[in-house]
């Protein structure tokens, strides 16, 4: 996370698999969710260039720091990761049972790679991961699993993130929609 207490300890997300056509929105939303909820970077499959472009565009407009990259070798990223590898799966250990140890080690300086699938995930990923973690043991979505996991990892602190180099920012309001220039002091000026 940007103002991470665990300075130097990165949180990265790896999206495994992408079915062109069918997975466009899901892969994009994995990237957007990783960014919005405090991860430092996301890797997405190299056949998801459109999703990469969308996440990069949102980062340019609404700020970072956040990296989005394509990869043609996701298994190598898992294999070579220096830190904890957390694979999110409905078959895993209950997040509420393991989050404390994962969080503590991250705060002590260990980076975390969060792996989410699309279609069936091969068994070597289950074996390679240090943690197989279920956000409930019910089937749902990689976007939901990722959001809950990151929020638990950061204990909600990601909601207070400061965004750097943004072009725009949203003015929170009870009703209506207002987006202003990020360097504007006058909240009325760009509405
Ligand atoms: C639609 S699911 C596909 C799961 C697939 N049937 C399998 O056996 O791997 C896509 C991804 O969502 C995530 N996911 C789904 N349910 C989850 C849960 N209860 N907890 C954590 N992650 C979950 C996993 O990362 C999974 O790979």
TrEMBL record:
One of its GO terms (molecular function) is tRNA (cytidine(56)-2'-O)-methyltransferase activity. S-adenosyl-L-methionine binds at residues 88, 117-121. Gene3D superfamilies: 3.40.1280.10. Pfam families: Trm56. One of its GO terms (biological process) is tRNA nucleoside ribose methylation. It catalyses: cytidine(56) in tRNA + S-adenosyl-L-methionine = 2'-O-methylcytidine(56) in tRNA + S-adenosyl-L-homocysteine + H(+). Transmembrane segments: none annotated. GO terms for cellular component: cytoplasm. It comes from the Archaea. It is found in: Cytoplasm. Keywords: Cytoplasm, Methyltransferase, S-adenosyl-L-methionine, Transferase, tRNA processing. Its EC number is 2.1.1.206. InterPro entries: Alpha/beta_knot_MTases (IPR029028), tRNA_m1G_MTases_N (IPR029026), tRNA_mtfrase_aTrm56 (IPR002845). Homodimer. Belongs to the aTrm56 family. Specifically catalyzes the AdoMet-dependent 2'-O-ribose methylation of cytidine at position 56 in tRNAs. This is tRNA (cytidine(56)-2'-O)-methyltransferase. It comes from Natrialba hulunbeirensis JCM 10989.
